[in-house]
Each structure stands twice: as structure tokens, then as C-alpha cells.
């Protein structure tokens, strides 16, 4: 049975290449069946890594809810099981090859994921806890393990496919292989940018936080337990649970001011209060080996909901006026003035989380941005608007509606980048399959007899 391009994107880009845009769900350790409970069981094992029946069922439900696949349930579950085994194989090989994802990398992604989840329920912590029936700490712990595995898999994927390239000829061949009646319909897409100003807390607000942290430091210097005070006061909630411990890291991971303070410390010495662009820290150096160091910290930040946005709004209003008079290009203004450094380097243009491209499907926009664009014409710029950044800061921005492409059937001339990405992911998937067939004999792989008909271990 021939698969259309959308199915290929789902099975090969979405699963096989294991992009980190996967939504994280929470596996249940038991599955309701009729009026009773069916105890979950291990259906596959790769070295010390296991796959549960509930994990496969959850992935199956995700796939059928996000696609129009007509594959029989048995075939689809076998395909998913194969992909899950490949994922566990990647994790196991990463352990053998010492391919490590650092705690700081995981923590950064965890914070972004939690922010996204909070936004999806209106920013209310209690609402999120009610939705999942767990405390915030429990939610974070559930997500952290899954996220670390996904990031490890992604890193291994990157190493395996780092040399995979694709030519324009291969892109065309890939597109031409799709039956004309199976070409997907792409919904409306937009290109949109913003220029952001993040007002700084006042000196008084900063001084208040500094004084609070100075008092905590004073207690440390009198011999109180660092870990206990970190758990009680630190606003780096992930490390706070570990007594403020950030683990072993390599120079270049943290912001420069933090690392500069670390490399001035002696073993077990506690720093003075350090201000970075993130907030205020008291740092203790636990150990150092060359450019590697093990530290813990207590972190406090100002309440950004209390900042005054008036000056930032006035500044952006003047920038907008110059843009509308065509005396200043939006892209130049973004590079020179925007406090969103990620988009500033791209002329202020936002990118799709799913594809990384500047054209974003309208159904991938957050609800506020979608509604804002719905009131705008292409080529216009909004007046300054207050909004909350991903890391919780109150900010002001102007939004530029640069371009819109109406929904249409896939065409190489219009959708080259999408088709290029699909063709590249298809080629990467084949590279991963080749790698799988090469290394699977080096691993202990056991599959439950209930799935004996799945040809997981057969050559692809």
C-alpha cells in the first residue's frame, strides 16, 4: 500500500527521526478494560531499557488522533513498536558511547515545556495540577525522564545522520514518487515577526531581591545547610529539589557572569551575591577539574509582573512610526533594538516549532497571535502590546504581518522547503534503519510473544 506524503511525514519525520516537538503525555500504569483493571506489562526490552504495553497504547492513540492513516491496527502497532525499540536502542547505544545530555540542557527544555503547558491552561498552576491529577513537582518529574530520553535519542540521531545530505534532484524524485491523488493540502501559512522590549526591574526592586539573598548568604556563612536553604528559597525549582546542585558542567554552558564567578572560587567556597541577566545567585563551588566544574546555587529573580512598561511602549511606538514612514526597515529595527535575541538575528521573524521555517501554519500559532493576525492586513504593524515571554517576564512588542500563503495542494514550486525536509527526513530514516540493522546484534533485545508476528528484527 502506498503512503501519501502526510503519512510519510508522520511515520518517518514525526516518529523515526523522533523530533522533539512530540507532545508529552503521561502513561498510566494500568489500563481500564470493562469494569476491571488490566495490569501493565513489559512487552519489549533493549538491554536495561523497557517498553510497557501502556507506552505503546498511548503512542498508538497519539498517532491515530493526529493523522488520517488507514493502516490496520495490528500493522500500525507493529510499526510503532519497531520505532520504540529503535528509540530504546538509541538510548542504550548512547550509554555505551557516552553520548550525554547534560542536566542543564534538560532543565532548560523542561522549563520551556512547563511554560508551554501552563499557557495552554491559561497560566494557572492549579489548573494544570487538576488536569493531570498530580502536583507540579510530580508533573515535572514525569516529564523530565521522558524529555531526557527524547533529547538523548535526538543527539544520537544527530550523530548517526550527521553526514546525510540531499540534492535538488533527490528532492524532485521524492516529490514525483507521490501519487497525484495523494498530495496533501497545506493550510494557510503566515510569515510574522516581532520586536520586543523587556523592561528592566527598578533599582529598588533589584535591591530588595539582593538584600534578601544577602541575608540567606549570611545564614550560609554562619554554617546553615546549603541544600536546605536552597530547597526553601531558590527559584531555580529544578535544582532546588537537588539542594541547589547543578551537577558537573563544562565551561560555556552557563551565562558568562556565572562562570566568571565560579572560576574565581576555591573548592567549597561560597560566592558573594552575583547578578546575571537571569537574576541573582549565591554559588558554591563543590569541585573543579580543568574546564569542568560542579556547583550548586541559590537563585532569586525580581518579580517581572511589577515592572513599568510605559517607557518600553513609548520607545516601540516611535520605532513603529519610523517603520510605517519607511524610514526604518522592520528587519533592521529588530536586529538593532529587539530584546528577543533569538528572533532578532532573523530580522525579528518567528519560526515554526514544527519545521524551523519562517512560514508558520496558522493552526500552529498560539491563540493570541492567531486572533491578532485575524484583525490585521498583510504589511501592517501593530501598536505596542504587552505580553508575557516564555520565561515569564512582562514585555512589550510590536507585531509585523509580513506575508500570507493561502491553503493549497502541495506543489514543488511553492513548498520546496517542506518537500526538501520530508525528503531529507526520509533519507535520514533509511540511514537510521541501516544503523539499526547493523547494531541490533550487539544488543540484548527481547519481545513479548504477543508481538511475535511483528517483524521488528527483520532486515528493512
UniProtKB/TrEMBL annotation:
GO MF terms held by the record: peptidyl-prolyl cis-trans isomerase activity
Top-level taxon of the source organism: Bacteria
Keywords, comma-separated and alphabetical: Chaperone, Isomerase, Periplasm, Rotamase, Signal
EC number: 5.2.1.8
SUPFAM superfamilies reported for this sequence: FKBP-like (SSF54534), Triger factor/SurA peptide-binding domain-like (SSF109998)
Keyword Nucleus: no
Stretch forming the signal peptide: 1-32
Protein's UniProt name: Chaperone SurA, putative
Pfam families: Rotamase, SurA_N
Organism: Microscilla marina ATCC 23134
Alphabetized PROSITE patterns for the sequence: PPIC_PPIASE_1, PPIC_PPIASE_2
Domain PpiC: 187-287, 290-400
Amino acid at each position: 500500500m502506498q503512503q501519501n506524503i502526510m503519512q510519510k511525514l508522520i511515520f518517518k519525520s514525526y516518529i523515526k527521526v523522533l523530533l522533539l516537538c512530540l507532545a508529552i503525555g503521561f502513561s498510566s500504569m494500568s489500563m481500564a478494560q470493562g469494569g476491571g483493571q488490566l495490569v501493565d506489562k513489559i512487552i519489549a526490552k533493549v538491554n536495561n531499557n523497557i517498553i510497557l504495553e501502556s507506552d505503546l497504547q498511548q503512542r498508538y492513540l497519539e498517532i491515530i488522533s493526529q493523522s488520517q492513516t488507514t493502516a490496520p491496527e495490528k500493522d500500525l502497532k507493529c510499526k510503532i513498536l519497531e520505532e520504540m525499540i529503535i528509540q530504546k536502542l538509541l538510548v542504550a547505544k548512547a550509554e555505551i558511547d557516552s553520548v550525554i545530555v547534560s542536566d542543564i540542557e534538560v532543565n532548560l527544555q523542561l522549563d520551556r515545556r512547563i511554560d508551554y503547558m501552563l499557557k495552554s491552561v491559561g497560566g494557572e498552576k492549579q489548573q494544570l495540577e487538576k488536569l493531570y491529577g498530580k502536583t507540579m513537582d510530580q508533573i515535572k518529574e514525569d516529564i523530565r525522564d521522558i524529555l531526557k530520553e527524547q533529547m538523548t535519542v535526538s543527539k544520537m540521531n544527530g550523530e548517526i545522520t550527521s553526514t546525510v545530505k540531499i540534492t535538488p534532484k533527490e528532492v524532485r524524485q521524492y516529490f514525483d514518487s507521490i501519487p497525484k491523488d495523494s498530495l496533501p493540502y497545506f493550510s494557510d501559512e503566515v510569515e510574522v515577526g516581532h520586536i520586543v522590549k523587556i523592561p528592566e526591574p527598578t533599582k529598588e526592586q533589584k535591591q530588595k531581591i539582593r538584600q534578601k539573598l544577602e541575608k540567606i548568604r549570611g545564614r550560609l556563612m554562619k554554617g546553615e545547610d546549603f541544600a536546605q536553604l536552597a530547597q526553601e528559597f531558590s527559584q531555580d525549582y529544578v535544582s532546588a529539589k537537588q539542594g541547589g546542585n547543578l551537577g558537573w558542567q563544562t565551561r560555556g554552558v552557563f551565562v558568562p557572569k556565572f562562570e566568571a564567578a565560579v572560576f574565581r572560587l576555591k573548592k567549597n567556597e561560597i560566592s558573594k551575591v552575583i547578578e546575571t541577566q537571569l537574576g541573582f545567585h549565591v554559588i558554591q563551588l563543590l569541585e573543579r577539574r580543568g574546564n569542568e566544574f560542579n556547583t550548586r546555587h541559590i537563585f532569586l529573580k525580581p518579580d517581572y509582573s511589577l515592572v513599568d512598561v510605559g517607557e518600553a511602549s513609548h520607545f516601540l511606538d516611535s520605532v513603529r512610526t519610523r517603520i510605517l514612514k519607511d524610514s526604518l526597515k522592520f528587519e533592521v529595527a529588530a536586529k538593532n533594538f529587539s530584546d528577543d535575541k533569538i528572533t532578532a538575528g532573523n530580522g525579528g521573524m518567528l519560526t515554526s516549532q514544527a519545521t524551523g521555517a519562517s512560514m508558520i501554519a496558522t493552526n500552529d500559532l498560539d491563540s493570541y497571535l492567531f486572533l491578532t493576525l485575524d484583525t490585521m492586513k498583510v504589511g501592517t504593524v501593530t501598536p505596542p502590546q504587552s505580553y508575557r515571554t516564555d520565561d515569564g517576564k512582562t514585555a512589550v512588542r510590536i507585531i509585523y504581518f509580513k506575508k500570507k500563503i493561502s491553503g493549497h495542494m502541495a506543489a514543488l514550486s511553492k513548498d520546496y522547503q517542506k518537500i526538501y525536509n520530508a525528503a531529507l527526513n526520509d533519507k535520514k530514516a533509511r540511514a537510521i534503519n541501516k544503523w539499526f540493522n547493523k547494531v541490533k546484534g550487539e544488543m540484548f533485545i527481547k519481545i513479548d510473544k504477543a508481538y511475535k508476528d511483528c517483524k521488528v528484527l527483520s532486515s528493512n
